[in-house]
Each structure stands twice: as C-alpha cells, then as structure tokens.
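Can you give me the bound-state structure? Components:
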Amino acid sequence: MKQYLIALLTKDHVESLIRSGLKLVSGGLIALGTSQNNPHLTELGAALGATGLVTSLINVVEGGQDSAQPKPTAVAPKIVNTALLFLLGLSLFFTGCTVTQQKAAYNTLWSIEVTADNTYHAYVNQVALGNLRTNDVPQVTHLFNQLQAGVLLAESAVQFNTNAIAPASLVQESADFMNLINVINQKTKPTN
Amino acid sequence: MTPLALAMVQIIAQYGIPLAEQLYTKWATGANPTAQDFTDLRTLAQDNGVSAMTAELAKLNIDPKSPQGVALLALVQ
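Here's the bound-state model for the whole set.
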C-alpha cells in the first residue's frame, strides 16, 4: 500500500504540495507578523514565498526542455533541494538576528524583487529560445510589470518610513506571478 | 552528461547562483539599509518586460532589429 502511494506521488505532485505548503505558511506568517507588528515573522514569510519563486524558476528551466528528449532528473532535484535548503536556512538564520523593521522590510522587498526578476528573465530567455510558447507572454509581462510598479512604490514607503513593513498585498502579487508561470509551465507546448 | 543536462546546468548556474548571491549579500548584514541599497532595489524594480527581453536577446546573440527580435519585443510592449 505504502509503495503504491509512493508510486502515485510523482515529482509534480511533490512540488505542488511543497508550493502549496510554502504559500500557506508564508501567507500565515506575513499575516501574523503584520497583525503583531513583528517584522521577523513577516520577513520569514516573505523568504518562504521567495523560496516558492525559486522553485518556479527551476520549473521554468525544466519546463523549457524539449519534450522529445529525456529530462535530466538526476541533476535537477538536487539543485531544487539545495536552493530550498539554502534559502530556508538563510531565512531561519537571519530571522534569529536582531534587525530593525526597516531592514526586515527591505530584506522582504529585496527577496521578492530579486527572485521575481530572475524568474522573469529565465522565462523570457526560454521564450526567445522557442522552448516556451509565446501566447502567454503578454499576460506574464503584464503581471511582472504590475509587480515591479508595486515594488517601486513599496521601496519609497520603506525608505522614508523606518517602521515600514512590506505590504502583504505585494507578497500576494508575487505569489500570483509565480502561480501564473507554474500554470504556463504545466501546459507548455513549443510554438514551432 | 547529455548536452541537454549540460545546457540546463548552465541556465541554472546563470540564474540560480547569482540569485543566491544577490540574496545573500543583502541578507548577510544586519545593518540598516543604506541609500545605495535602496538605489540597487529601485534599479532592479525599474526592469520591465522590454528591458528584460532586450537583455535576454543580447545574451542569446539575437539582433533586436531582426524579424525574430522585433517579434519577440512586440510581445512584451
């Protein structure tokens, strides 16, 4: 029975479960951190959300492979695991340190921005190579531009308000962006 | 290692390692963010669809004025 269940759990299922878990935990921590005015919780939540974005980034790279060729599964999971562990360890370590609310908010924004930007670059790279279909590009770009505008606005708020915490809505936007890319990856077919 | 696996490792190295490095450098210091830190964040947040596509076209040696480049740039306008 156990073996049967394990056989049913493909890599996609596991990734999907991890993503859902990360989203739930990160959303909960951000909400809790905001309500208790605790920047550490908010920061940890955003870091976990960023970890989800990294998973998306790896998915973009994997999803861009030609389906006619076998997927190199031996390398990718190790890199995914390493990235996840690295970010989780990093977030746990630094949330243990004493930082100001401004620093916590800045770290949150920086994590969101860097991962979203890298994910988008990997996405357009695969589109330019013809590995991902072009139909979804306007939608992804629109969401990316929206997120960028939100980060710009939040950046000003954080810079000039030392008690600022990155708004949860921005984290939600980054989660939406991540979800869209994941959905596109699941239905990807090369255009050529 | 197949050429496909090599290409994948190259792409992950291109995006994954610099990403980890970028995150680490900002997280590593507990000090308050400086004006330069905010400038870095603002610069990154000013990246948009067109600039990202232009940068990727340059990496892939695709001329933005070629028919393929024009078509790809039109998608992110």
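A couple of observations. Residues 1-11, 65-82 of chain A have pLDDT under 50 and may be disordered. Chain A touches chain B through 59 residues (CB under 8 Å).
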